[in-house]
Amino acid sequence: MKAYLYLEDGSRFEGTAFGAIRESVSELVFNTGMTGYQEILTDPSYGAQTVVMTYPIIGSYGINKTDWESEKISLEGMVVREYCATPSHYMGEQNLDDYLKQHNVPGIYGVDTRMITKKIRNYGVMKCLLTYKEGTDHLEKLHDFRMPADLGQRFGTTKKVVHAGKGIRMGILDLGCKQGIINILKDEGCTIYQYPWNTSSQEILEDDLEGLLVSNGPGDPKDNDVVIYTLKDLTGKIPLRGICLGNQLLALALGADTYKMKFGHRGGNHPAIHLPSNRVIITSQNHGYAVEESSLPADAEVTWRNINDNTLEGFCHHRLDVEAVQFHPEEGPGPEEGRVILEEWIRILEEKKHAEIG
Ligand SMILES: NC(=O)CC[C@H](N)C(=O)O
């Protein structure tokens, strides 16, 4: 069956439908990962977005039981150059087409993904319509579409969940937390308190945590007024850590500003420099917003910067015990070099606890 992808700049791409047959309007972004489509599909931070995979063949290793970041597919559509319907991998359980159908997510293949990516790079992130009929009102549909403002409330846990462990008590303020983050905290032995987005600062403080991690999540960070208010209240009362959306929200809580990037960073090949040590690591990334470095309070320290475009990739505030990174130390998908950052956060909070006990 034919499918069409219409972009906000007026361009139209004809391809073949796969996955669910459902018209969808969303924001179009590209990901440069050569592998990792299962993690990308299930990463809640892609809520209300359609992803173009720049790697030309997608689906070749199928879908497995372990490489998921949440139980649902979060994105609105998938665009690929060539779809492989006959996957071959010892862990593969299902093909991508069936998986998309099962989760009611549409896809299109056989389109020039290189040209689409170049358009996004030149024009910036665009709205897109994935549909099955040619039409004259398509551009209107695109113009009428607005990214939902409640995305940060849609993908996280709806009730407090506790995962018992033998180590320190870590909270996660869950705005769509990737499973990879939870898995690392579990590996480190933490007892994890996973909180819904609207949990009050008082409720969090009552659990006597060693630290609170603000998770990744979809949408514009500035849409999360309630969370920013909560974080403002928690600042200085409990060690705060953040990943991606969490990095942006902690910066906003400190009075800094965020902005929408032209086309963002999505892929597993982003070099970031750790400024205090002058060391570079290759990071996994998925973000369309960034913290405006010059807006950070004077006593905050910029700790990480992206080498490709010099954007801020992490900061800390020693006195208030706030530390965050814009990239994904838990990878999922991508290089694992950043994992030590999360492990180090836990180790230092453990040390602090033992020092306090004496
Ligand atoms: N992965 C994330 O947490 C993404 C954060 C935010 N939604 C952005 O696009 O910048």
Automatic annotation (TrEMBL):
Pathway: Amino-acid biosynthesis; L-arginine biosynthesis; carbamoyl phosphate from bicarbonate: step 1/1; Pyrimidine metabolism; UMP biosynthesis via de novo pathway; (S)-dihydroorotate from bicarbonate: step 1/3. It holds the Pfam family CPSase_sm_chain. Residues 1-131 form the Carbamoyl-phosphate synthase small subunit N-terminal domain. Belongs to the CarA family. Residues 1-169 are annotated as: CPSase. Small subunit of the glutamine-dependent carbamoyl phosphate synthetase (CPSase). CPSase catalyzes the formation of carbamoyl phosphate from the ammonia moiety of glutamine, carbonate, and phosphate donated by ATP, constituting the first step of 2 biosynthetic pathways, one leading to arginine and/or urea and the other to pyrimidine nucleotides. The small subunit (glutamine amidotransferase) binds and cleaves glutamine to supply the large subunit with the substrate ammonia. Composed of two chains; the small (or glutamine) chain promotes the hydrolysis of glutamine to ammonia, which is used by the large (or ammonia) chain to synthesize carbamoyl phosphate. Tetramer of heterodimers (alpha,beta)4. It catalyses: hydrogencarbonate + L-glutamine + 2 ATP + H2O = carbamoyl phosphate + L-glutamate + 2 ADP + phosphate + 2 H(+); L-glutamine + H2O = L-glutamate + NH4(+). L-glutamine binds at S45, G217, G219, L245, Q248, N286, G288, Y289. One of its GO terms (biological process) is 'de novo' pyrimidine nucleobase biosynthetic process. PANTHER family: CARBAMOYL-PHOSPHATE SYNTHASE SMALL CHAIN, MULTIFUNCTIONAL TRYPTOPHAN BIOSYNTHESIS PROTEIN-RELATED. This is Carbamoyl phosphate synthase small chain. SUPFAM superfamilies: Carbamoyl phosphate synthetase, small subunit N-terminal domain, Class I glutamine amidotransferase-like. Keywords: Amino-acid biosynthesis, Arginine biosynthesis, ATP-binding, Glutamine amidotransferase, Ligase, Nucleotide-binding, Pyrimidine biosynthesis. NCBIfam families: CPSaseIIsmall, PRK12838.1. Its EC number is 6.3.5.5. One of its GO terms (molecular function) is carbamoyl-phosphate synthase (glutamine-hydrolyzing) activity. The active site is at C244, H328, E330.
